[in-house]
Each structure stands twice: as structure tokens, then as C-alpha cells.
UniProtKB/TrEMBL annotation:
The keyword tRNA processing applies. GO terms for cellular component: tRNA methyltransferase complex. PANTHER family: 3-DEOXY-D-MANNO-OCTULOSONIC-ACID TRANSFERASE/TRNA GUANINE-N 7 - -METHYLTRANSFERASE (PTHR23417), PENTACOTRIPEPTIDE-REPEAT REGION OF PRORP DOMAIN-CONTAINING PROTEIN (PTHR23417:SF14). InterPro entries: SAM-dependent_MTases_sf (IPR029063), tRNA_(Gua-N-7)_MeTrfase_Trmb (IPR003358), tRNA_methyltr_TrmB_bact (IPR055361). It holds the Pfam family Methyltransf_4. S-adenosyl-L-methionine binds at E61, E86, D113, D135. Belongs to the class I-like SAM-binding methyltransferase superfamily. TrmB family. Substrate binds at K139, D171, T209, R210, Y211, E212. Pathway: tRNA modification; N(7)-methylguanine-tRNA biosynthesis. The lineage of its organism: Bacteria, Pseudomonadati, Pseudomonadota, Alphaproteobacteria, Hyphomicrobiales. The keyword S-adenosyl-L-methionine applies. This is tRNA (guanine-N(7)-)-methyltransferase. It comes from Methylopila jiangsuensis.
Length: 230
């Protein structure tokens, strides 16, 4: 396995390339990604300037996978700007295909380590951050690879506006407990749950994802946590 195919940068571990992409999907990455990709060297103070249409706020989704949630949210909220992060080429290609098919102009993408993007964003510039069904790294010796960490929560907090939500979804109980432990000891966040249904039921308007559907088929249940930026 080459260093290009498998590497670690900041918080990203794993293989970026799987099966070869079909010609059409490969062409989307070659032709459309350069126009939609956030340039870390030229991030504007007003993130709304990233979009060719007026937006009232900007939200970030880290690791959008098959892009089901990202595309749904962008379609339902045309006056909101969305930045989607996905380092895996198959998922990135699905996102690009959906953006083209739906004619979306309120989505921008980043195809590398999310920590690099978070560090480049202006302080208090995001209205929401979503981390949905991230890689759970289930083996105990790999838990340090999980995206949720004290350092990354600090990064998210710096980029979020006061009062804005950080949303986390997972079907892996150990990762849910891990996230609760880290977020509840953070000075920057408070857990918003008041009763069990606040985290056992999907959020209003939740479209579901392929990964979630697979988890349900395999007998696992999703948990949907919301933390407020203090």
C-alpha cells in the first residue's frame, strides 16, 4: 500500500482510494472539484463569500459519506451555505454527482483532513457543525484515532458561533459514551438533552443515511446528540 493511498494527517487515518472510479465520476472530480473546493489559502472572513448565491449562515458537515444528508440539507435550505468534508474519493464523487444533478449552488467541498479546514476557518463563523456516523474505530487500541478528541472539540468550538449546535450521531455505544465524556468535560459545550428521546430519536427533518440503514438492519440503534457552544 502506497503512502499516498494510506496516510495520517492530523485526524485522518485510512485509505483514500478504494475501487477505481467510473469514468464519469473520475471526470467530476477532475473537472468540478477545483471549482467547488475551499481554498485554505484564501478563506474569506465572511464565509458567505464562498458561495455564488446569498446565504444567511454557513454550516459544516464533517465526513459526509454518500452525501445523502448533505444534499438533503442543501436542497431544503437554499439560503444556507454548506461546506462538506470527505477525504474518500468514492464519497466525494457521489457528492459532486448530486450537486450537479440537483443544480445546487450553496455547497462547497473539502477533500482532505477536516482539522486543516477547521484551523483555517474564521473564529465564530459557523452556525452548525455535524459529525454523522463517523468511523468508530471500535478496537480499544484505535480509540485515539476517533475524530472526537479534546483538541478537535476545541477546534470545532473556535469555529462555531456562540449558542450554535455541534451535532453527533453514531450507532456505536462506546463512541457515544466517548463523545459524551469528552464534550461534557469541555468548557466550550453543554449537552442539550433533557430526556432520553432527545438522543434516541433522529432530529426533525432527518433524511437518514445508507450507513444508518445498514446499522438498523444489523440490529444497532442510532444515537443523536446535540451540544451547544457556550
Amino acid at each position: 500500500m502506497s503512502d499516498e493511498a494510506m496516510r495520517y494527517e492530523g485526524s485522518f487515518f485510512g485509505r483514500r482510494r478504494g475501487k477505481p472510479l467510473r469514468a464519469g465520476r473520475a471526470a467530476l472530480i477532475a473537472d468540478d472539484l477545483p471549482e467547488l473546493k475551499v481554498d485554505l489559502a484564501a478563506v474569506p472572513d465572511d464565509l458567505g463569500a464562498l458561495f455564488p448565491v446569498p446565504v444567511r449562515e454557513v454550516r459544516l458537515e464533517i465526513g459526509f459519506g454518500g452525501a445523502e444528508h448533505l444534499l438533503h440539507e442543501a436542497t431544503q435550505n437554499p439560503d444556507v451555505g454548506f461546506i462538506g468534508v470527505e477525504p474518500f474519493l468514492a464519497g466525494l464523487a457521489k457528492g459532486l454527482a448530486g450537486i450537479e444533478r440537483l443544480g445546487l449552488r450553496n455547497v462547497r467541498l473539502y477533500d482532505d483532513d477536516a482539522t486543516q479546514l477547521l484551523d483555517a476557518l474564521p473564529e465564530a463563523s459557523l452556525a452548525r457543525v455535524d459529525l454523522l456516523y463517523p468511523d468508530p474505530w471500535p478496537k480499544t487500541r484505535h480509540w485515539k484515532r476517533r475524530f472526537v478528541s479534546d483538541q478537535n472539540l476545541g477546534r470545532i468550538a473556535r469555529a462555531l458561533k456562540a449558542g450554535a449546535p455541534f451535532r453527533f450521531a453514531s450507532d456505536i455505544d462506546t463512541y457515544v459514551a466517548w463523545t459524551l465524556e469528552h464534550a461534557r468535560r469541555s468548557p466550550d459545550f453543554e449537552w442539550t438533552a433533557a430526556k432520553a428521546d432527545d438522543w434516541r430519536r433522529p432530529w426533525a427533518g432527518w433524511p437518514g443515511t445508507r450507513y444508518e440503514a445498514k446499522a438498523i438492519r444489523e440490529g444497532r440503534r442510532g444515537n443523536y446528540l446535540v451540544f451547544r457552544r457556550l
